[in-house]
């Protein structure tokens, strides 16, 4: 509800309702005064002035001669002489003050005090330190802010979820705006057009149009925003989150533009320097965090109390930036922090950035920016040259400092060495930047060395939208595109010879090259509901078979289609449905369906067609006997000495004696491993892991058993890898990356969904 103003007893002002307001970007949270900048790398010394009990707010006069402290328990405002640090007087305000703000307009002598206990605001004449008026506002007012012109006063009413708008000339409330849950802090833009309210109850910042007194949007920030502070140019708003972080909001777009900046525990207040270069955050443990706004990082944290306790604080800055004023609720004191500027040595303000290596030369470009806050001219020296290449530097000086652009070029030998097993794929150098006073900053740059890849030729073949799977069928490669359609490539000419209007979830090819099997899922499902059989000669569907499904409401994560080597059967393995269906490809009928439990990852069939191998839900390999009704007959442990690895992909040798399994380390997600599994029924080590070797973070495998090469890739990793089957050592790398298929001629096909291209790759001799 809205409490009527005493000056207008006949009728209350209308509450402006909350409408359908968009909630924007996620981030985390600051609050009141916007004042002057400090020097670079300052030191801080603290003195104390006793004030009233439970000080809850502080503001500084326009000329900086007085600090006003709201004392909650004493129901007063202390006036402190900032030159001497002495308490000059105490003003009774008739209620429990929660916040204080000074009118910033020229010639004004007013301060406004929010009285939480009486739902009023006291107007103080600062020329004689007396209360001249009282204005009724909403329930539990906890923050107050004044427009730059001094014509409007805004009060955040926490219990009422509103902001009261006061006409300062008449000392009269003229509007009440519903803003959201528990507004606790306010800020006004320098042009007076926007008012911002921190909503502790909904983790948002409400943005008000000051001309219309309406909320135009809300910006989601971090947990329980306690305070907000805006830069003097109005371009950035800093929100202090009670969970110990600060969010940065671009006020032009009303979106969070940086990751939350971690500060101290239980922060309650913030202030921004007038030049916008620093944000000061008062933390609950009697410390202040100093944020450099150009890098959005905390550059200093200092204590304001020799015996710190956990409590609430507010903060303000003197006009010249030489002092901070921080209330200490637990000690009933105003901490006056003197800021002593440090030596303004050159400082790294941006970068170093590191670009992607050139695929032809391996050259890497990047830049970094160094700024001297005194504006001194800078010189640079390459103090530590790169050890595996050369670097060229170019310096350009602008308003924000000197930007150094570099081009690093590795030697041919370095690129060749980087492609070897355990090769060094990086280099570094250091540039020292100095000013005339001998201040200096060292900038170290680490650059990648692009391995000279093992491919002798790479042929790009444009296909459909986002290709993600391919199979070899006779002299063709069939490619399924996520955006719809199947592309057919002639492997001899590397030309797309057909684009077919099929949109399956997966495809498979018969070994004789006469049939393609297309697996289709239901609406919103990637498990198979039906299988269509395509004649590769006519490109026409000759049959469609409905496949049994389990729980139709189950989440479905994938499936596999496995034609038997003799072409008489097709096995359909649905993951979440847990069903294995057997299709007789002569009659095109489902002849059996077995529930064998959930699995995930990949599946393959033995060369004699008697067994299926699939990765189970726990990352091992399940062996399924399909000589009769499918049944699980064994489980093969993969990487048995490391519980953090899970099998993801399987490839079978043509002689039917070995399976190669690609595993991924699930704990860190940065390493992989290849395991060689004995699948020869006549071997004494049948169904055991024979050997294993570590690889990079890969999730796709293709094997050329003729040349003894294992190809691995991951669409989220820059380079694919080539390994030797016999030794499991890395032979080289390749790019681009994507889903892999290798044909009988040793050509590797890479389906890259990001470029809508299949790359046909030929490789040099990779003998280890």
UniProtKB/TrEMBL annotation:
Compositionally biased spans, kind Polar residues: 40-50
InterPro entries: Haem_d1_sf, Host-pathogen_enzymatic-act, N2O_reductase_N, PQQ_b-propeller_rpt, Quino_amine_DH_bsu, WD40/YVTN_repeat-like_dom_sf, YNCE-like_beta-prop, YVTN_b-propeller_repeat
YNCE-like beta-propeller domain span: 61-339
SUPFAM superfamilies to which the protein is assigned, alphabetical: C-terminal (heme d1) domain of cytochrome cd1-nitrite reductase, Nitrous oxide reductase, N-terminal domain, YVTN repeat-like/Quinoprotein amine dehydrogenase
Region (Disordered): 37-56
Record carries keyword Glycoprotein: no
Keyword field contains Cytoplasm: no
Keyword terms of this UniProt record: Signal
Name this polypeptide is given: YncE family protein
Taxonomic source organism: Mycolicibacterium rufum
